[in-house]
């Protein structure tokens, strides 16, 4: 048994309300299976108490109330379990879903909110003006970043690079998927990246690069960020190729080589995520991106995202 498997075993468990399993695609992630009964009861309570999406948007405390409804069904320790997994350097992520109990996308938003608020607090998403954002990828796109461009690889990056608040974790939920082939989430755990040390110990690793958002993100400020920083005595990373502004050819080559090295790494995972499932990742030591879709005039895929911090 490898060291990674031994450490992972600490979170694997079975209770009446859920099972924590190793993810079928990678030992780095867990897959948590909630019982259908628990999900049904959770949604019943949400509906009985009129917790609409709009109510959650307008009333921040309601997001914690729906989180408490989920704990009522699966047990108080569930929140701590999720936080422990996302903090755990050996893993740092999990998938979980609605197990086919609902196909209502409003209920998807509410469910994802319950999970997010068990982890901490969601940041304001300037793109949507809400605490979450839903965005579609279709055959055509007129936007100014690769987020919604279907037929391009969206390279590996971390989120929150151009905002000055912490982005400890990231949640992505599959809302809709029609006529989609390709487009998987591409994920890389920092410690699996073969050339990590070469880039993390490079003279430019601690250089402060300027990050600026494109117009669609509605973030006017600029911010200086180090690519690598200390996180619990291990490297953390902050990087996205589209929004970083190097000033010299040497800096540009460092960033280009770093991006290419990660893209080519053999440990990169292309995650399969069914509709109604979500993935949560630690944003300090996981990078994410998206594979290109195959051309289809009727392509329609929608994701929800929430980015946030742990509560202290
Ligand atoms: Fe992202």
Automatic annotation (TrEMBL):
Keywords linked to the UniProt accession:
Dioxygenase, Iron, Metal-binding, Oxidoreductase
Gene Ontology terms for molecular function: glutarate dioxygenase activity; iron ion binding; oxidoreductase activity, acting on paired donors, with incorporation or reduction of molecular oxygen, with 2-oxoglutarate as one donor, and the other dehydrogenated
Q: Pfam families recorded for this chain?
A: CsiD
EC class, as a word, reads oxidoreductase
Matching entries from InterPro entries are given as: GlaH, TauD-like_sf
Give its E.C. classification number: 1.14.11.64
Can you tell which superkingdom this protein's organism belongs to?
Bacteria
Put simply, this protein is called Glutarate dioxygenase GlaH
What organism, scientifically named, is this protein from?
Alkalihalophilus sp. As8PL
Gene name as annotated: glaH
